[in-house]
């Protein structure tokens, strides 16, 4: 009886010993599966990290290449821009030089033109002044002659027609076409003499200011105060026109032919209204025009001017008969 419990005890010990070993085997398998999962996850995370790291480096390299490309492009564009700027600067300097040269040439041309215009204006003024003084001298010479010969009608006609050349108070006075002061002074002396002897002159004054600062006057032969017949006055006016135009204008030949064709003017010329010296002057002018070919006398004694091309144009003269100059 004593041995049996031991046996049972032994059996139970043996049994107790085997049970924990089975448990330990089961527990040993479970940790191995977890480790594999952890290892797998670790590998996945590592691979992902490596891929991300690789992608990062690839992106960095691409960015570096792009930056290098942009830098190269920028450098190239900058060089081209610098070259273009230099070229534009050179063109600007050339343009400025050309502009300065053109400006200088233009200023020089303008200066030359201004000087030429001033010279032309001065020459024109000189020519006009010379012409005015020449006309005044010619008029004054005839006025001196008529006064000296006491042909007061002809002297009065000269004053009536030419007072505007000498008298600055005359309504038709032109400052740009006037006699010099010496001629004007002499004319005014002769005009007073004509007024005192002609017995036909009238002076009408005009003024709108109280102090007569704008006073002007008009001198003419008035029929109501004239001691000469109307035919004689008209003949004197036409004769003066002929004498005034002669010898510088061939129009004198036409006017003289018309004068000779009017009996009333020829009768007035040969009347006592004119001095013999004035009649002699008329004949002298007629002879001169005939000699020079500006006037033609027919068999019946009538006169006609000579015109260009053998026609009837009153403004032209036949070159086969006319002299080279009307002097």
Report on this model:
The chain is mainly α. Helix content is 70%, strand content 6%. The protein is built from 7 helices and 4 strands; from the N terminus they run αααββααααββ. A two-stranded antiparallel sheet has the order 1-2. The chain has a two-stranded antiparallel ribbon with strand order 3-4. A hairpin with a 5-residue loop joins strand 3 and strand 4 (303-305). Helix 2 packs across helix 4 (230-245). The longest helix is centred in the first third of the chain and has 146 residues, at 3-148. Residues 1-19 and 308-327 have low confidence and may be disordered.
Compose a concise summary of this entry:
The chain has 327 residues and is mostly helical. The protein has helices at residues 3-148, 152-166, 181-198, 230-245, 251-261, 263-269, 276-292, and strands spanning 201-206, 216-221, 295-297, 303-305. Helix content is 70%, strand content 6%.
């Amino acid at each position: 009886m004593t041995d049996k419990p031991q046996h049972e005890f032994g059996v139970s010990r043996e049994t107790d010993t085997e049970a924990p070993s089975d448990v330990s085997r089961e527990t040993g398998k479970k940790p191995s599966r977890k480790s594999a999962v952890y290892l797998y996850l670790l590998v996945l995370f590592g691979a992902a990290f490596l891929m991300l790291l690789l992608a990062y480096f690839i992106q960095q390299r691409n960015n570096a290449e792009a930056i290098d490309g942009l830098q190269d492009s920028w450098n190239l564009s900058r060089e081209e821009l610098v070259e273009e700027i230099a070229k534009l600067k050179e063109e600007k300097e050339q343009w400025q030089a050309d502009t300065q040269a053109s400006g200088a040439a233009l200023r020089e041309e303008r200066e030359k033109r201004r000087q030429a215009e001033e010279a032309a204006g001065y020459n024109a003024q000189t020519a006009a002044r010379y012409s005015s003084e020449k006309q005044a001298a010619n008029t004054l010479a005839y006025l001196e002659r008529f006064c000296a010969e006491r042909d007061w009608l002809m002297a009065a006609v000269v004053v009536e027609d030419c007072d505007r050349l000498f008298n600055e108070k005359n309504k038709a006075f032109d400052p740009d076409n006037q006699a010099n002061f010496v001629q004007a002074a002499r004319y005014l002396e002769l005009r007073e003499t004509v007024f005192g002897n002609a017995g036909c002159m009238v002076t009408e004054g005009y003024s709108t200011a109280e102090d007569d600062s704008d006073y002007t006057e008009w001198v003419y032969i008035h029929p109501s105060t004239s001691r000469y017949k109307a035919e004689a006055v008209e003949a004197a006016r036409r004769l003066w026109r002929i004498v005034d135009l002669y010898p510088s204008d061939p129009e004198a030949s036409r006017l003289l032919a018309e004068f000779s064709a009017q009996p009333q003017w020829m009768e007035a010329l040969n009347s006592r209204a004119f001095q013999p010296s004035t009649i002699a002057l008329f004949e002298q002018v007629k002879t001169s025009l005939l000699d020079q070919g500006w006037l033609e006398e027919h068999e019946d004694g009538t006169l006609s001017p000579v015109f260009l091309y053998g026609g009837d144009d009153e403004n032209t003269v036949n070159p086969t008969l006319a002299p080279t100059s009307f002097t």
